[in-house]
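Sample pair:
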Amino acid sequence: MSHTLIPPPKPATGALALEIIGLTKRFGSFTAMDQVSMKLEPGTVHALLGENGAGKSTLVKCVAGFQQAEEGSILIDDHEQTLSNPVVARALGIGMVYQHFTLAPGMSVAENLLLAADRVPLWIDWRAKRAELTAFLATTPFQLDLDACPAELAAGEKQKLELLKQLYLKPRLLILDEPTSVLTPQEADEVLGHVREFARSGQCTVIIITHKFREVMAYADTVTVLRRGRAVHHGRVPDTNPALLAQAMMGESAQNPLNFETKVPPALTDKAQVAINSVAVKPPLALQVQGLTALGDRGTVALHGLTFAVGCGEILGVAGVSGNGQRELVESLVGQRARLAGQVSVMGDPYNATRLENRRLKVRSLPEEPLRNACVGNLSVTENMALRDFDQAPLSNKGVLNFAAWRQRAREWIAEYGIKTQGENAPIASLSGGNVQRAVLARELAGDINILIAANPVFGLDFAAVEEIHTRLRQACQRGAGVLLISEDLDELLELSDRIVVMSEGQIVFETTAALADRKELGAHMGGGTHHDTHHSAEKAVA
């Protein structure tokens, strides 16, 4: 009787099946990911959508082994796996391209490709390796000079190199974290088109984190939407549209006393809407922006000729999915980013965001992440509160700083704003996020204000802090200040704003009064589906 010898199973290759069941991840008392489940079929492209803080990065970091969840399971090819670190994940064929570049700038393209491997040999046969790398590049649509250094490459070429590093390792699951954020539309189509073909060939399964609905609709097979750490939508891309995805990302406000979706009269024409908008921005104008153009961090254009205005005593809300130019807009207005073109004026006077102009024209700002953008963490609460006017009376007398006056005012503001701190001399970095925000508010809202620029002012704060900051913004408006409110929370914009404009891909694509705002219509424009039809309305508003 003969026996057939069964060979041992070979390591799995090709696209893997991924299933995530009830994954929960906590950071102290904060739950970043709450019972998230989703399933990916082999050889598919799966899009992961959600606002900042929704849990997207936490989810993929658990899959890539950088973080470990407290609850739940990760199944690869129907087998539960413990992804205790990135080396384990890499051994299972999981690769990740990060949003920020991880290249060695002084090493060549060839050396960067080899560094992607877990182990680099002590001695390299460069003739053989160059032939291998040249053959590999021939299988991709990307042509890079193997001898070039990343420092010499354009942003799009760097992003291609990041992708090539992972493709060279032949991953079974490829995770892309906003892979097109630094690419032109043509480069984005080239990269994503190749990724899609790579998946459809059966070599790989792909997860794409993106803020761009166009990319989801054009290149993904399935999509999951996360909101506040929970998976709130799963579906096939052909069964959805950008408006539905935007609605899932933003959610419906159960506590909203107004039914925003029924406030638009059905007979309202485009001409009537433009007329309403133009009335809302009659002079005086606290802030006027015309043709503002600026580059993003990687050298591509992030703002494309923005034109809008904010009236005195008005709150203008800027809506949009994160990553569509809002941060660049704020930085261009407050002097943290150079302007390529355009004019900005405050109360009719040119404004170039110098310290003297800030003081003379009474411009104030409440930036996102105030501890990073508006404070010096190691300095005391007192010193941070004095950053704006430390050299002005009564804080200074003929060049001599009056520290007693600094401390006295700080104690008054701490009491007035209810700032919880060990004292005015405590480092501001020792305060909680809400209390840092209150301290910055106290400084920025002191005295007369012409224009206040507020960017996601309550992001990550508790209910009490949110209510207080919203009240302070309304009070500034009631005193005659214009408020430019940039927020990714549509409920916040609908609650506070007089008018709302929508930003998408660095342009203002729609405008409406808040009283006539329709949530679904705003979502559709945030999704980018109707840019060309509505761009004119935003421009006419300041004509």
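The chain has a mean pLDDT of 81.
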